[in-house]
UniProtKB/TrEMBL annotation, chain A:
GO biological process, one term: glutamine biosynthetic process
Family matches, as PROSITE patterns: GLNA_1, GLNA_ATP, GS_BETA_GRASP, GS_CATALYTIC
Enzyme class: ligase
Name by which UniProt lists this protein: Glutamine synthetase
Organism phylogeny: Eukaryota, Viridiplantae, Streptophyta, Embryophyta, Tracheophyta
Organism: Salix purpurea (Purple osier willow)
Domain GS beta-grasp: from-to ranges: 19-99
Record-annotated GS catalytic domain positions: 106-356
TrEMBL record, chain B:
UniProt xrefs under Pfam families: Gln-synt_C, Gln-synt_N
Descriptive protein name: Glutamine synthetase
Organism: Salix purpurea
GO molecular function per UniProt: ATP binding; glutamine synthetase activity
GS beta-grasp domain mapped to chain residues: 19-99
Subunit record text: Homooctamer.
Highest taxon of source: Eukaryota
GO cellular component: cytoplasm
C-alpha cells in the first residue's frame, strides 16, 4: 500500500510548524492502553507546558455516563517513532475534574513515594525485563505454533535463530529501534525459552521514569504488533503445561547498594522484602499463581527465597554483585502484567521507608 | 509490511549516539547458535573494549538452574547487516564465572594452539567451503523438491540457473552481500550438485579468525533463512540415496608451503595427517559416516588417501600447486556440521606441532 505509506510518512516540518501529540493513558482494567491525538501549534519538550486534556471515562470503565470527563495530566514526552518529525508521544495519568487521582491511577501514589526525601536521596535505579508473547491474530494461539497443535519442546528457542526456532523477530527488532528513537532507555532484547515469547529490558531508569518508560514501551509494542497483524499478550502463563510463563523481573539498586559495603545493604533490603512477601505478591500481577509454581525457572508463590545466580529463587543476586561486594539484585516475582508504577514504588517503599 | 520495514530500518544515527550490539555464542549442542542484543553508549570497534556479558546457561544445556550464569567474552566484531548504521555483531565464547572455558567452548583451545609461537610463525591460512541445504519450513524436505516425491537425478543443478534447476538463490545472494557488508572474508558462492544445496567459501583467513568468520557467516545465514521462511540444514547427508552429502572442505597452507620448496612441506604435512586419520575423523563432524562412503565425490571414511586433482581422495592437492611446487592443499573430510575452531586448530596442530 505504497500510496498510503507515502501519506503516513509525509514530513510536515516542511509545510507547517504544527506538531501532533499522541496522549497515552491506562484504561479501566489497569492493563489496557488508550491513546488519542491532538494538534499543537509548535514543538514542545517540557511536559509541564503541554495542555491538560480529557477523555470519555464512561467508555473505558473509569467514570459514569452522566459525569464522564476524566482529566489527563501530561507527565513525560517521547519522540513519536510512527509519525517522526517533531511529533510526540505523551504519557499521562488520570484525575477527576476536582483534581483527585482516579482509583486506577497508580502513578500518583508512586510519584509521592519517589519524592519522599529519604527515597529521592537513595536515587533508586530500576531495570525491568518485560517478557511477552506474540499471538496469531484471530485464533489467539502463539505465533509460529501449528494451529491445533504444539511445537517441539522448549530447548532450541531461547536466543534461537532460524525460521523453525524464532517467531516474530521483525516485531521485536522494529520495537527495539522505535524505542531507542523515542528516547526510551531500552537496554536490550532476547528471544525467550517458550517459542513466540520475547523479552525487552528498560533501564537503568531512576524512580518514576521507570514506570513511564515501561508503559510507553508497551504502547509502542502494541502499535507495532497492530501494524504486523499479530497480538501481544502480557498474560503471565499464556499456555498451561511444560511451557515457561512470562514475567517482569525487576532489577533494583539504591545509592547505598551501589557504593562500597553495598552487599550488606542489599541483604538487609532482601530481608525486608521477605517479611512483606504476601503484600508484594498481591500487587505483582493478576494470575501470577499460574506462573510461580517453582518450576520453569520460578520460585513457588507461597515461599520467599533468595540466592546468588539462582534462577529458581524469588530474588536473585548476580555473581558480579557478590564478587564486588556491591551492586543490585533482581526481584523475579513480578508477572508480565504487573504495573511498573506499583512494583517499582513498592520495592522502594519496603526497602527504604518501611520498618519491620 | 512496509511500515514495519520502515521501523526496522530506522537510521538511529540521527537521533542518538547509542548503538545495538548483538552478542552471538554457540549453545550446548555445539551447533546451535544463540544471540541476544544490548544497547551500548557509543561506537565500539575493539572487542577488548566491549563489556563481558552473561546468559542463562540452564536454558541452553550449559549450566544447572541453581548456578545458571555463563559468561560471554567478546572476541570479534562485525558490522550488523540487519540493523546497519553503527550497529554490530559480536562473536563470543563462553566461560564459567570463575573464568574457565565451559566444555562446549572449542575456541579457547584453538586460540591457544594458534598463539603457540611455532604455529604463529607459520601464519596458517584457511579457506573453508561451507556446504548447506535449504529445507521447506514445516516439512523439512529440501526446497524446490516436490512434496512427497523427488526431483530429477543430479546433473543439471551444479551451478545451474533457471527456476527448475536453482532453488533458493535469493537466500544465497543476500547472504553473500550481507557477509561482505559485515566484513567477513567471503570469497565466493555456488549452487551444489544436489538441488537445494549451496556452498559459500570463507577465506583466506589467518588462524583463529577462520573460525570466527565461519561461525558469524553461519549466523547470518540462519538469520536470512529466518527472514525467508526456510530452514538451513548443516546435516552432512540430508537425503539418503543417490544424492550428494554436504561437507566443509578445508583448504590450508602455511608460510613454508606457500614459499619455494613448499610442495615437500605439503607432502610431509599430508603424511602427518595420514598418521592421525582416526583422530581427525572423530573431530570432523557428527554423522560423517553417512556422507564419507567413497561415492558422491568423497573418500571412504576408513581409508586415508590423497591425490592431485582427485575429488575421491581424503586430501586433494590442486594442479596449480603441483605445477608451481608450492601452494596449499584441501582436506575434503570435514562434514558441513564441523566446528571450524576444532578443525582449523587440529590441522595446524597435527602438521606443525605434532611429531610422529
Amino acid at each position: 500500500m505504497s500510496l498510503l505509506n507515502d501519506l503516513i510518512n509525509i514530513n510536515l516540518s516542511d509545510s507547517s510548524e504544527k506538531i501532533i501529540a499522541e496522549y497515552l493513558w491506562i484504561g479501566g482494567s489497569g492493563m489496557d492502553l488508550r491513546s488519542k491525538a491532538r494538534t499543537l501549534p509548535g514543538p514542545v519538550t517540557d511536559p509541564a507546558k503541554l495542555p491538560k486534556w480529557n477523555y470519555d471515562g464512561s467508555s473505558t470503565g473509569q467514570a459514569p455516563g452522566d459525569d464522564s470527563e476524566v482529566i489527563l495530566y501530561p507527565q513525560s514526552i517521547f519522540k513519536d517513532p510512527f509519525r517522526k518529525g517533531n511529533n510526540i508521544l505523551v504519557m499521562c495519568d488520570a484525575y477527576t475534574p476536582a483534581g483527585e487521582p482516579i482509583p486506577t491511577n497508580k502513578r500518583f501514589n508512586a510519584a509521592q513515594i519517589f519524592s519522599n526525601p529519604a527515597v529521592a536521596a537513595e536515587v533508586p535505579w530500576y531495570g525491568i525485563e518485560q517478557e511477552y508473547t506474540l499471538l496469531q491474530k484471530d485464533i489467539n494461539w502463539p505465533l509460529g505454533w501449528p494451529v491445533g497443535g504444539f511445537p517441539g519442546p522448549q530447548g532450541p528457542y531461547y536466543c534461537g535463530v532460524g525460521a523453525d526456532k524464532s517467531f516474530g523477530r521483525d516485531v521485536v527488532d522494529a520495537h527495539y529501534k522505535a524505542c531507542l528513537y523515542a528516547g526510551i532507555n531500552i537496554s536490550g532484547i532476547n528471544g525467550e525459552v517458550m517459542p513466540g515469547q520475547w523479552e525487552f529490558q528498560v533501564g537503568p531508569s531512576v524512580g518514576i521514569s521507570a514506570g513511564d518508560e515501561v508503559w510507553v514501551a508497551r504502547y509502542i509494542l502494541e502499535r507495532i504488533a497492530e501494524i504486523a497483524g499479530v497480538v501481544v499478550s502480557f498474560d503471565p502463563k499464556p499456555i498451561p503445561g511444560d511451557w515457561n510463563g512470562a514475567g517482569a523481573h525487576t532489577n533494583y539498586s539504591t545509592k547505598s547498594m551501589r557504593n562500597e559495603g553495598g552487599i550488606a545493604v542489599i541483604k538487609k533490603a532482601i530481608e525486608k522484602l521477605g517479611l512483606r512477601h504476601k503484600e508484594h505478591i498481591a500487587a505483582y500481577g493478576e494470575g501470577n499463581e499460574r506462573r510461580l509454581t517453582g518450576r520453569h525457572e520460578t520460585a513457588d508463590i507461597h515461599t520467599f527465597s533468595w540466592g546468588v545466580a539462582n534462577r529458581g529463587a524469588s530474588i536473585r543476586v548476580g555473581r558480579d554483585t557478590e564478587k564486588e561486594g556491591k551492586g543490585y539484585f533482581e526481584d523475579r516475582r513480578p508477572a508480565s502484567n504487573m504495573d511498573p508504577y506499583v512494583v517499582t514504588s513498592m520495592i522502594a517503599e519496603t526497602t527504604i521507608l518501611w520498618k519491620p
